[in-house]
């Protein structure tokens, strides 16, 4: 890759949920474009979430891949639900790499197939991670972009379930997921207005089902097999029931790059047509 292809040279990016899946894909691709990465992940399971989350070994592998792609990397073990912890982790990354230019608020959880209607711990875990965690991420990172003074780009990773209620089954898990991902759109639109005077663009990306461990795990596969919900996987494009992490990453790269310099306040589906069915 030539220097002209490194559109993000000298940029510093924060990626939450960077241990694996979409977060890892975004972090490595950003590094390939010249960015240095503050890679944030909880690196622990959440009791109410019924599948294993990323580990410290996963985050270490992301860091290795970022460095192999040409970027510097600072791993941060922090819970996006805890603002104080997240702020401390981001500060440690800024101390080493410099002030922030790009934020990818990617951390999220789901409990597809959990059909309980009154599972309050599941509801709280999903909303606290997917919505409050995004708000915390903004609070922990945007002041650094403002201090740097040259503008920046923030991408909030929502979901196709942030644009449609299709697939709702009355469960606490699906209510929480759809509500939290719709809430991310509200955060995005409000932040796009609030941060525009600082030349900070804010957009959201809405993947359909993505081939990551969030979906491809024993619990979800078993539950979806036993309790199929066709509305969750219906798409317009054939042979595209799941998109790949790189498909989402390509949209992220465009949004944070110079070709999208006048794009802010928009929601971009990457879902093979799920939301328009």
Question: Mind explaining what this structure looks like?
Answer:
- The structure is a single chain.
- This protein has 277 residues and is of the alpha/beta class.
- It has a single domain (12-270), classed as 3-Layer(aba) Sandwich (Rossmann fold).
- The protein is built from seven helices and seven strands.
- Helix 1 (21-32) crosses helix 7.
- The radius of gyration is 18 Å and the shape is globular.
- The N and C termini lie far apart (39 Å).
Q: What layout of secondary structure does this protein have?
A:
Elements: E1 12-16, H1 21-32, E2 36-41, H2 56-68, E3 73-77, H3 83-97, E4 102-105, H4 120-148, E5 152-157, H5 172-195, E6 200-207, H6 218-226, H7 245-256, E7 267-270
Parallel strand pairs: 1-2, 1-4, 2-3, 4-5, 5-6, 6-7
Helix pairs in contact: 1-2, 1-7, 3-4, 4-5
- Helix- and strand-based class? alpha/beta
For the record, the count of structural domains works out to 1
**Helical content class:** 40-55%
The appropriate CATH architecture is 3-Layer(aba) Sandwich
Report the CATH C-level class: Alpha Beta
**SSE pattern, N- to C-terminal:** EHEHEHEHEHEHHE
Query: Strand content of the residues, in percent?
Result: 5-15%
Tell me about the biggest sheet?
A: 7 strands, parallel
CATH superfamily: NAD(P)-binding Rossmann-like Domain
Low-confidence stretches: none
Give Rg in angstroms. 18 Å
Mean pLDDT: 91
Number of strands: 7
The rough form would be described as: globular
Strand order of the largest sheet: 3-2-1-4-5-6-7
The CATH topology annotation reads as Rossmann fold
Protein name: NAD(P)-dependent oxidoreductase
Pfam families: adh_short
GO molecular function, one term: oxidoreductase activity
Keywords: NAD, Oxidoreductase
